[in-house]
Structure formats: structure tokens, C-alpha cells
Design a protein that fits this description.
The protein is α/β, with parallel strands linked by helices. The chain has one domain: Class I glutamine amidotransferase (GATase) domain (Rossmann fold, 3-Layer(aba) Sandwich). It has 6 helices and 13 strands. The strands form 3 sheets. The protein has a 7-stranded mixed β-sheet. It is globular, with a radius of gyration of 15 Å.
């Protein structure tokens, strides 16, 4: 299997690398279109979405990643990474929108759950996992499906926080900030990149 990639332009890169290596994956930090062409999947980390898209444009990653996504490359965006995948991006407190890859039929509302001081942890029921997962929310977006193509894998009281549309996965929370690799493993298993675990509760 080709290495699993982590977009390494800005944000929580090391945390995704750590989780993936703990699962036995070979990991490649991705910064260029050429590096993107040699991975079997890619994670878009949390960070600052406007900074990430600016850096992606500067390094010519945006068109390459958009093309690979449309051709079926499995991509998992967490927090800011999820915002980058969404077709519509809004700000909860301001009437603004921003550039994104515009690939998933999702409306991402930035900072929906509050700023940094409003960070919280919540136990999540996730389809495909046999026991709750600790979701860590930091400046998290709300992710609203815009079509029936989008499957909701987990929700909180205010709405969806983990979505899937074919090869694209979007998460409001940060699974990479825990020691629990089950969400990463679930993604890789669903796309045939890991053998199914006998019990995902062991992470």
C-alpha cells in the first residue's frame, strides 16, 4: 500500500502522523502536488482554514487535490480541513464566505460552537464504532448536509459533526488529539486501506 498522506502546510500535522503511525501506517507529509500523487489517502488537519487555503494556492496544491478528490482519493478533513472540503463556508457571527475546495455537499459554519475559550469534550456515538468516542471540539464548525449524498455518522444536539460523502469525510472534532485511533482506522478500513479490526474499541 502507498503511504497515507497528511497535508503538512499548517495546523495539527504531527498529531495525525502520530495516530496513523500507531496504527502501523507508513505516513508521508504532503506539501506539493507531486507528493500528493504518491499517497493512498490524505488527511487535512485542523488549523486555520483561511491560512491553509492560501498556502495550498501558493504551493499549487489546490487544483491537484481537487482533481484527485474527484477521481476518488480518500480524503478526511478535520475541523479546518472539513471546512476546506465543504461547498459552502459561512461564519456564524458574520455575513461572510470564504474560498474552499468546494467538493462535499456540505455547508460548514465556522466557529459555530464558539472560539478557543469555548472548547469542549463530548462523548460521541459514531456509526461503525461499538462504543462512544471522545470528541474534542476546538473552534469547531457545524457541518450541515446539502444533499442526500451525504451520510451523517455522528451528531450532537445542535447538528452533525461527522459526515461522509463517498470518498470524502468531514469532522468537526479532532480525533487526532486523543490516543484513540478508531476514527482514523474506520476511515482507512472503509476505503480498503486497512484490514478490519476484530474489535475497534481497542483503538
Amino acid at each position: 500500500m502507498s503511504p497515507v498522506g497528511v497535508l503538512a502546510l499548517q495546523g495539527g500535522v504531527a498529531e495525525h502522523v502520530r495516530i496513523l503511525r500507531s496504527l502501523g501506517c507508513t505516513v508521508r507529509e504532503v506539501r506539493t502536488p507531486e507528493e500528493l500523487s504518491h499517497v493512498s489517502a490524505v488527511f487535512l488537519p485542523g488549523g486555520e482554514s483561511t491560512t491553509l487555503i492560501s498556502l495550498m494556492n501558493r504551493w499549487s496544491v489546490t487544483p491537484a487535490l481537487r482533481d484527485l478528490c474527484r477521481r476518488g482519493l480518500p480524503v478526511f478533513g478535520t475541523c479546518a480541513g472539513a471546512i476546506l472540503l465543504a461547498k459552502e463556508v459561512l461564519e456564524k457571527e458574520h455575513d461572510i464566505s470564504q474560498e474552499s475546495l468546494a467538493l462535499a455537499d456540505v455547508r460548514a459554519v465556522r466557529n459555530y460552537f464558539g472560539r478557543q475559550r469555548s472548547s469542549f469534550v463530548q462523548s460521541l456515538d459514531i456509526k461503525g464504532l461499538s462504543s462512544p468516542f471522545k470528541g474534542i471540539f476546538i473552534r469547531a464548525p457545524l457541518l450541515n448536509p446539502l444533499s442526500e449524498k451525504v451520510r451523517v455518522l455522528s451528531s450532537v444536539e445542535d447538528g452533525p459533526v461527522l459526515l461522509r460523502q463517498d470518498n470524502l469525510w468531514l469532522s468537526s472534532f479532532h480525533p487526532e488529539l486523543t490516543a484513540d485511533g478508531r476514527v482514523h482506522r474506520l476511515f482507512l478500513e472503509e476505503h480498503g486501506l486497512m484490514e478490519p479490526a476484530t474489535d475497534r474499541r481497542d483503538g
